[in-house]
Amino acid sequence: MSLPSNNSKYTLKKITLRQKQRCFRVAILGQNGVGKSALTVRFLTRRFIGEYDSTLEQVYRSNKPVHGRDVDFEILDTAIEHENNCMEENIRWADAFILMYSVTDMCSFNECCRLKFLINSYCKKRRPLRMTSDPSSKVTISTAPVILVGNQIDKIRDRMVTFDEGRRRACEMGCVGFYEVSVSEMIDRITEIFDDLYITFKSSKHPRVKKSQSFIRTNKDCHSSSEEDDQIKKHPETTIFNPARRSGI
Ligand SMILES: Nc1nc2c(ncn2[C@@H]2O[C@H](COP(=O)(O)OP(=O)(O)OP(=O)(O)O)[C@@H](O)[C@H]2O)c(=O)[nH]1
């Protein structure tokens, strides 16, 4: 039996809509040499490549499964050379951010604060926030999810930033997650970062919590449960908070 013509039209429309689904855009920001290109290539190809052209600023496209769903990623690997010209444009382009530093470099760690400030300033999706200490204040913050990532933990002897400092900073800056990784030695953890970012982005677009509840965690919220503490002791290089994961999405 042939299908009625309007039925096939409907199928066609559905396919067209599906094709138009926008890519999930991730910008990776951080000082030069922290491992942004290495992270990008590791996620896309599962390979670790030692040297990259530091002047190249590139968008990579790839389709990856996230929890059984195909997601079109666009990943912008930023280059410091272009930063001053393009930072605002890059930030406005992205849906979500990975802020990266090297645990062996305190400057790169501090640079993340400046970059987060710029994300909050330029990001297209912002919402007003009133400080509890001063209810009359009007501050706008970015609602785009940001994950803070400390890289190069394999360089044990060169470590300058502790896990706790990273975790605290992530909380203070309003990041949705914090990871410590070694791009050169880990692969699953890298995939987890991108998966978490996508899931958090999706859940913040279609929140399952009431509007009055915030996805952005504050200092006060930033204590880990004893279960998390156990996890951190077992796997020091791990994420310690992620609202999406906690809400079971
Ligand atoms: N030991 C170690 N080296 C790493 C790791 N990740 C990256 N590297 C090295 O760090 C150097 C810088 O890595 P890149 O990925 O080029 O860093 P980047 O942030 O993209 O740097 P720019 O392109 O200059 O902005 C390279 O020599 C990498 O091989 C890691 O986890 N461990």
From TrEMBL:
Keywords: Hydrolase
Annotated GO MF terms: G protein activity; GTP binding
Top-level taxon of the source organism: Eukaryota
Pfam families tied to this protein: Ras
Record-stated family: Belongs to the small GTPase superfamily. Ras family.
Biased composition (Basic and acidic residues): 218-237
UniProt catalytic activity: GTP + H2O = GDP + phosphate + H(+)
Name listed for the protein in its UniProt record: small monomeric GTPase
Lineage: Eukaryota, Metazoa, Spiralia, Lophotrochozoa, Mollusca
Matching PANTHER family: RAS-LIKE FAMILY MEMBER 11
Positions of the UniProt region annotated as Disordered: 212-249
EC number(s) on file: 3.6.5.2
